[in-house]
């Protein structure tokens, strides 16, 4: 049997980093910078006022109160500001360029607010309320290093620097294909013996949630020709194919039947759920074949695909945030397998507990879980109070 770590390595090695592409700011959200982003200009790009008020020379407010004629009006956006005439004040608004020669910004509250002449009652020291050139960013500086995950603030600073698009790693293009003659699309009538198809929407959503582009190829019946046709229809332009179902030990194991000896290796992995797995290539395209049981599929995504896909998209941090917390109730685990149990974190008590049983068909319990408990291969029993690792989902 293959270890979890060995199979994780096989899957990680299948994927190569996605290319770095110029992408609009909006579409860059959640993606990762593929190159350092340098500042093409200073921020602020010019000295400007941080207050609505008056710009004056220091010598003109040495003795207070002082009344000065207003020689200029400078709202934000003026592009033709001339030097400040000595012995005068410029009325200036927040963000407006400082007139050359101005040294003191007097907030309007410290004056009589005059438009033609202004009486200045008191004044701050020179430099106060003045935003200097490059105070935030110097031209040429690396503002966002390669590997930065683009969030709202990163989009903000990139826009402030004039970038309309960013060099980010493109999302991984993933094709999700479920197999199973018993499957019916949600929304259609269900005959006895049939079930609704849940793996493809779940897996596609899991990929979308990490910033990948997931498409669903209509699920196929358990026939090799149907699977090959589905793969051929959809494979072009795909970085990764993920199938679910048809990989265990029975008859009608369509994925195994179609892909064994065709570049995909099937293996039992020492984990529960998620034991039957496969990985390889279909033509040139990486393929990962997940077990059909819904919880097995999802757990396999968390353990193998999420980290590999995030690494391919350049994420510096590929694992879920993890805590180690005491169990609030005992649990058992199979010998020789790493068990992944749906879990629940009690944030008040600081404890975790298994959430539902270990059965890999218990999907509603997965939906109610907020963490995944990881019980090592050599542990068969844990008592209440024993520490256990929990991956925080969410
Ligand atoms: N004799 C053995 N039987 C099984 C073994 C084994 O080692 N020996 N392994 C079991 C384990 S563990 C798993 S996990 C499953 C994996 O089976 P498959 O990958 O071949 O999946 P299927 O048989 O196609 O389906 C399993 C189960 O999941 C339901 N399913 C499948 N696809 C979907 C879907 N897209 N949406 C919702 N539900 C789905 C399917 O109806 C079955 O109930 O094999 C065990 N058996
Ligand atoms: O691998 Mo199976 O997931 O134990 O049901």
TrEMBL record:
InterPro entries: MoaB/Mog-like_dom_sf, MoaB/Mog_dom, MoeA-like, MoeA_C_domain_IV, MoeA_C_domain_IV_sf, MoeA_linker/N, MoeA_linker/N_sf
Record field: catalytic activity: adenylyl-molybdopterin + molybdate = Mo-molybdopterin + AMP + H(+)
Highest taxon in the source lineage: Bacteria
A molecular function (GO) term: metal ion binding
Annotated ranges, domain MoaB/Mog: 175-311
Bilayer-crossing regions: none
Pathway membership, UniProt: Cofactor biosynthesis; molybdopterin biosynthesis
Reported cofactor(s): Mg(2+)
Pfam families: MoCF_biosynth (PF00994), MoeA_C (PF03454), MoeA_N (PF03453)
SMART domains with a match to the protein in the record: MoCF_biosynth (SM00852)
An annotated GO cellular component: cytosol
Keywords attached to this entry: Magnesium, Metal-binding, Molybdenum, Molybdenum cofactor biosynthesis, Transferase
A biological process term (GO) from this entry: Mo-molybdopterin cofactor biosynthetic process
EC number: 2.10.1.1
PANTHER family: GEPHYRIN, MOLYBDOPTERIN BIOSYNTHESIS PROTEIN
Protein family: Belongs to the MoeA family.
UniProt function note: Catalyzes the insertion of molybdate into adenylated molybdopterin with the concomitant release of AMP.
Protein's recorded name: Molybdopterin molybdenumtransferase
Organism listed in the record: Nakamurella multipartita (strain ATCC 700099 / DSM 44233 / CIP 104796 / JCM 9543 / NBRC 105858 / Y-104) (Microsphaera multipartita)
